[in-house]
Amino acid sequence: MLARGTAWFIAPTILVAMIVMTSLGGHETYLMGDFRAFYCAGQAVAAHANPYLEEPLRSCEAAAGPPAEPAFLRPVALPAPLPPYALLAFVPLSRLPFPIAAVIFELLMIGAMIGAVLLFARVTGASSVLLNLAFAAITATVTLYVGQPVPLVFLAIAASALLARQGRWIAAALCAAGASIEPHVALAAIVGMFVAFPRTRLPLAAAGAVLAGASAFAVGVPTTISYLRDVVPAHALANAYEWQFSLTSILTSLAVAPETAIRSGEFMFALMLVLGVAVAWRLCRITGDPAVMVIVPPAFAVFGGVHVHFQQLAIAFPAMLYVYQRFPNVRILAGTGMSLSMIPWNVLSTSILTGLSPLLVGVFARITLGQRRGLVLTCLSAVIALSLLFLALAGFGPPPAHFVVHVYPPSTLAENSWGAFSRATLARPSLLMQWLRLPTMVGLACGLLAIARSAFAASPVEQRTVAERIVAATA
């Protein structure tokens, strides 16, 4: 009971510590920086303006604080690339002063994450302690701190999986459609359900029509068409150089032309989506559990692709824990993968996680893999954290940024100014930044391999045992 109660406070404690440390240090902060863009896009929608243009986004973002936008970002329009129907949700918050809206949004995201953990615990069979440990670092740093709506996606996916297991197909389809706040994450779950469960096809199509109508209502038909035709490709190009975990970002950091990198990322997304659906279909046949068609395809879809940040990678964790709980032969592989991928290594140099990462990994690995392997992974985590300092001191960090402010016409897409900023300040290929990708990608690959092995290497005895466990758990 004590461990379960304590685990719920890990992510909020890290968040508060980061806020306090930033405030005491007197540094400019990106606290709620992403939410600022969504807030201003909500204002634009409410004013019947285009939420994807340089203006009114840039002016609103520069004046919205506190917390104040960092000075180096004020000449830049941070885009809000969510679909129009998703921006509708920010309209009520945009009518409030920014500080009040930010607090309300933060509380909503904390509540959504609590709900997601509770539902994922039922879906995966893993304890809330493991789920809180797995999600804590990513939730605190690249979700709650910057103000991302990803917890809503997690909540919707978890609810959809649980409803699918219960045979409540319409509700499951509607929840999956609700997760399309992040379309490239939700699409994998939607395709999995559409392929496997005929009774979800009509509700999914109806939900798609409703979302299209909501988009037209929010910004008009021409802007909705422009979002698909212009904004999405422009955002892919603007972020092609940004440091991420997408294949596109990796290729551009290796001097591949951005157009080629984007096409390669699109191909890999399609390939991993098909692979994820195939693996989920096999697992569904083995386990008799429809929930896997919802949680497994997104886990594969976020490996590579065009635009993948740390907060989206975390959608793979429930699928890893699912097979960890049910297939003993892949527990070492799944637990190791989780231990390597649960820490956002790219923010270690600017957050309290520098000291906490070995502790979080150590506790998680100790519970899942035992004392000896837990100690090994704890030491490995400490070595990774220290390697960042050594590489930086040795001069292998990113070169100095040289960002020259360009003035863009108000009617141009916000992706233009953001793309210029991203290429100048966020790309900067270096050995340190390339190394930071490695633990996460290796960990995610281990987790996906564990899921695939569970689907295609399970013996008939294991298949019967797993099916019996799921029947007993859902009875």
Automatic annotation (TrEMBL):
Keywords: Cell membrane, Membrane, Transferase, Transmembrane, Transmembrane helix
Domain of life: Bacteria
GO (cellular component) term, any one: plasma membrane
Bilayer disposition of the protein: Multi-pass membrane protein
One Gene Ontology term of the molecular function aspect: hexosyltransferase activity
Cited InterPro entries: GT87 (IPR018584)
Major location category of this protein: membrane
Protein localization: Cell membrane
TM region positions: 7-26, 98-121, 133-163, 169-197, 204-228, 267-284, 291-323, 343-363, 375-396, 435-456
Listed Pfam families: GT87
Record-stated family: Belongs to the glycosyltransferase 87 family.
Descriptive protein name: DUF2029 domain-containing protein
